[in-house]
């Protein structure tokens, strides 16, 4: 037994198997060995950066988009070194939310942020970030709860159905900051002390573009080349490209670029069908990806693709990005009043998922996805048809359903018939 | 390389056809698995390969290559593989102040791109130098993918010219082969892309066209591959059908091909 004990101290797995074999009641359902407590603290070198985890499929380091549901759809998260392109919805109501979730996730995890915009001052964007669900009261309660339950839990080792032990215990409650992917309360602003503690760089286009005319002729629109230089400078100076090995703690740079390609960036790709600088945007994306691939950074871009007149450019932009997600809101379309979609605010289309270090990519099986903006959170769900409610439960809602259907009806006879039918 | 695809194409690394232009084309799906196939195929066949990789980083191709049984790192050290990494070079070209000549120098220019430096790069890479180099068999130019060039401001005609020059050099005088991938933009109304695709289809000897399924996403069938021989296949084969269509499923390390509707998941 002593030999087994020493063995256990040496290498966990074999030792505990030996110990298990030595104990009396061995069933075939016995666990092989205690899993390393907390998968987060696994010995892998990659996990040493907060808020990241390696991909199950290709070993690529992933960061969360700030929306765990979206992470799941993208195959676990956004791979470091890649671009996530959000095609904005028509009135730009929902895409800023995704943008802010991405940045807020960076702040919680202590990542460095780089926010670029031509419209709003980056400092203002940061003020508007949603508050993480880390409320102190809530947390205290949760800790007490956890304390009460945890003490007996840790003592009792399940002999049968031990797989239940592996289930994450704190599913519903607020989460600690070390976890991958957080939940946010969109109705509240992020606490200023969190913002103060974070490190961020802002790129506000009107401040950066000189009013003088000494702009050298270049293949890229001036704002784009300035932004690329800025990103390159940050990556180089802060050692995100791995050139600064003496830096102790590796960190992730999260880049957010707002409404890229809009006329405010000085790009005419949105304005005309055959514009002079139609390659500016695609070139920018290409060089940006080149920068990202060689550094520890991930980038989110929102782009008003519905403004781009030339469809060919959209196809090229998609090909030159890594992950592409399209938001289609119901605002202003006839779907807004369609009873089929009454539970949702829009559809979300995953246009492209990159193949990294692999022949295949993680495509989610579900293609029909819808989103909904609740009071506090943005949720992505599988698109369901509303349930067919029985008459006894709620007749009123069924009448609601019938109302819009009645409208296009040609004659009153039909509608009357429909009503009659409903009255049963 | 995928042995099943070799069977379909009637080739093997021991008998490499020379002087051909193979066009890979994808429509509504991702055809990069074909690039990986040809890369590993020619490396295994001991050919001297010049790989113009504009889409992904070297490590990506290397990791996938290892799954298919070739090591790009060692091939590069041996001198068998000349690798041009477009993403990495683009940063240097665009953001570096001094203007030194680079194969992708057109990125810096404002006007229509000039691909002559890229052609010079390919020619230098593939031209046999000494007797030491003679260890490699016929030279191969592999491009992933030509559509990226359109996005980077190069006109379709310039790309066609580039391929024409490469054909003259690689296929004719050096007795090698060219493999290039192009996206078919489909209904995106991309005129330049159509010009490029039609022009290349006209020149090429073999066309492999990967298409997504018309009915949409399927878990067990990832798409269909159309193989079109545009010139008589080797006399030994003596086949009458000039085009074949198969459905395929990409797996972790290989691709399985089957006749239409004969997916193992269906049967």
UniProtKB/TrEMBL annotation, chain A:
Compartments, as annotated in UniProt: Cytoplasm; Nucleus
Biological role: Component of the elongator complex which is required for multiple tRNA modifications, including mcm5U (5-methoxycarbonylmethyl uridine), mcm5s2U (5-methoxycarbonylmethyl-2-thiouridine), and ncm5U (5-carbamoylmethyl uridine). The elongator complex catalyzes the formation of carboxymethyluridine in the wobble base at position 34 in tRNAs.
SUBUNIT field: Component of the elongator complex which consists of ELP1, ELP2, ELP3, ELP4, ELP5 and ELP6.
Pathway membership, UniProt: tRNA modification; 5-methoxycarbonylmethyl-2-thiouridine-tRNA biosynthesis
Stored InterPro entries: Elongator_complex_protein_4, P-loop_NTPase
Keyword line: Cytoplasm, Nucleus, Transferase, tRNA processing
UniProt-listed GO biological process terms: tRNA wobble uridine modification
Ranges where the record places region Disordered: 28-47, 390-424
Location, primary (coarse class): cytoplasm
GO MF, one annotated term: transferase activity
Any single GO CC term annotated in Swiss-Prot or TrEMBL for this entry: elongator holoenzyme complex
tRNA processing listed as a keyword: yes
Protein name, as recorded: Elongator complex protein 4
Signal sequence bounds: none
Family, as annotated: Belongs to the ELP4 family.
Gene3D superfamilies the UniProt entry points to: P-loop containing nucleotide triphosphate hydrolases
One Pfam family per UniProt: PAXNEB
UniProtKB/TrEMBL annotation, chain B:
The family this protein is said to belong to: Belongs to the ELP6 family.
Coarse class of the protein's main subcellular location: cytoplasm
Record keywords, A-Z: Cytoplasm, Nucleus, Transferase, tRNA processing
PANTHER family for this protein: ELONGATOR COMPLEX PROTEIN 6
One of the GO biological process terms: tRNA wobble uridine modification
Localisation per UniProt entry: Cytoplasm; Nucleus
Quaternary structure, from the entry: Component of the elongator complex which consists of ELP1, ELP2, ELP3, ELP4, ELP5 and ELP6.
Function of the molecule: Component of the elongator complex which is required for multiple tRNA modifications, including mcm5U (5-methoxycarbonylmethyl uridine), mcm5s2U (5-methoxycarbonylmethyl-2-thiouridine), and ncm5U (5-carbamoylmethyl uridine). The elongator complex catalyzes formation of carboxymethyluridine in the wobble base at position 34 in tRNAs. Involved in cell migration.
Protein name, entry field: Elongator complex protein 6
GO cellular component terms, semicolon-separated: cytoplasm; elongator holoenzyme complex; nucleus
Signal peptide extent: none
Single GO term (MF): transferase activity
Pathway(s) this gene product operates in, as recorded in its UniProt entry: tRNA modification; 5-methoxycarbonylmethyl-2-thiouridine-tRNA biosynthesis
Species this chain originates from: Phyllostomus discolor
Keyword Nucleus: yes
């Amino acid at each position: 037994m002593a030999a087994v004990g020493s063995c256990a101290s040496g290498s966990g797995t074999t030792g505990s198997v030996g110990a298990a074999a030595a104990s009396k009641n061995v069933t075939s359902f016995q666990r092989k060995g205690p899993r390393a407590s907390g998968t987060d603290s696994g010995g892998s070198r990659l996990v040493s950066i907060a808020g990241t985890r390696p991909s199950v499929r290709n070993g690529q380091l992933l960061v969360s988009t700030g929306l765990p549901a979206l992470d799941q759809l993208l195959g676990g998260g956004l791979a470091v070194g890649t671009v996530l392109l959000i095609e904005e919805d028509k009135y730009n109501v929902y895409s800023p939310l995704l943008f802010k979730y991405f940045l807020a996730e960076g702040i919680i995890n202590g990542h460095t942020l780089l926010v670029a915009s031509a419209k709003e001052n980056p400092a203002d964007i940061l003020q508007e970030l949603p508050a993480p669900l880390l409320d102190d009261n809530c947390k205290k309660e949760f800790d007490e709860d956890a304390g009460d339950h945890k003490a007996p839990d840790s003592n009792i080792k399940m002999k049968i159905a031990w797989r239940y032990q592996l289930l994450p215990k704190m599913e519903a409650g607020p989460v600690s900051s070390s976890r991958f992917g957080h939940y946010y309360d969109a109705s509240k602003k992020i606490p200023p002390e969190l913002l103060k503690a974070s490190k961020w760089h802002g790129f506000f286009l009107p401040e950066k573009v000189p009013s003088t005319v000494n702009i050298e002729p270049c293949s890229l629109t001036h704002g784009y080349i300035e932004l690329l230089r800025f990103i390159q400078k940050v990556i180089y100076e802060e050692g995100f490209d791995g050139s600064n090995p003496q830096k102790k703690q590796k960190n992730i740079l999260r880049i957010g670029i707002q409404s890229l390609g809009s006329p405010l960036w000085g790009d005419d790709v949105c304005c005309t069908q055959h514009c002079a600088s139609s390659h500016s945007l695609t070139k920018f994306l290409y060089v940006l990806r080149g920068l990202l691939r060689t550094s520890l950074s991930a980038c989110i871009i929102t782009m008003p693709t519905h403004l781009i007149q030339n469809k060919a450019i959209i196809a090229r932009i998609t090909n030159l990005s890594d992950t592409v997600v399209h938001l289609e809101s119901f605002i202003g379309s006839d779907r807004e009043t369609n009873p089929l979609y009454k539970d949702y605010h829009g559809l979300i289309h995953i246009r492209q998922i990159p193949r990294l270090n692999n022949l295949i990519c993680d495509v989610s099986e579900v293609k029909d996805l819808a989103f909904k903006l609740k009071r506090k959170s943005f949720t992505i769900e599988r698109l369901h048809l509303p349930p067919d409610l029985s008459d006894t439960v709620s007749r009123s809602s069924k009448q609601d359903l019938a109302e819009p259907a009645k409208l296009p009806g040609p004659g009153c006879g039909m509608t009357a018939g429909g009503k009659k039918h409903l009255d049963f | 390389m995928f042995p099943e695809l070799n069977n379909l194409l009637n080739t093997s690394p021991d008998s490499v056809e020379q002087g051909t232009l193979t066009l890979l084309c994808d429509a509504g799906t991702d055809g990069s698995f074909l690039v990986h196939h040809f890369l590993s195929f020619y490396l295994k066949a001991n050919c001297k390969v010049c790989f113009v990789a504009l889409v992904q980083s070297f490590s990506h191709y290397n990791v996938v290559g290892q799954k298919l049984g070739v090591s790009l790192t060692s091939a590069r050290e041996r001198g068998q593989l000349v690798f041009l990494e477009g993403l990495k070079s683009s940063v240097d070209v665009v953001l570096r102040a001094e203007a030194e000549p680079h194969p992708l120098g057109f990125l810096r220019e404002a006007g229509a791109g000039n691909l002559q430096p890229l052609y010079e790069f390919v020619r230098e890479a593939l031209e046999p130098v000494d007797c030491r180099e003679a260890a490699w068999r016929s030279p191969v130019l592999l491009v992933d993918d030509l559509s990226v060039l359109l996005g980077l401001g190069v006109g379709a005609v310039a790309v066609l010219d580039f391929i024409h020059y490469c054909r003259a050099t690689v296929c004719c005088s050096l007795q090698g082969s060219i493999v290039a991938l192009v996206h078919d933009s489909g209904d995106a109304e991309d005129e330049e892309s159509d010009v490029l695709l039609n022009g290349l289809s006209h020149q090429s000897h073999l066309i492999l066209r990967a298409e997504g399924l018309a009915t949409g996403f399927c878990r067990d069938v990832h798409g269909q591959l159309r193989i079109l021989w545009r010139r008589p296949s080797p006399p030994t084969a003596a086949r009458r059908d000039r085009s074949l269509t198969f459905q395929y499923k990409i797996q972790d390390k290989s691709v399985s091909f089957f006749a239409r509707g004969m997916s193992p998941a269906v049967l």
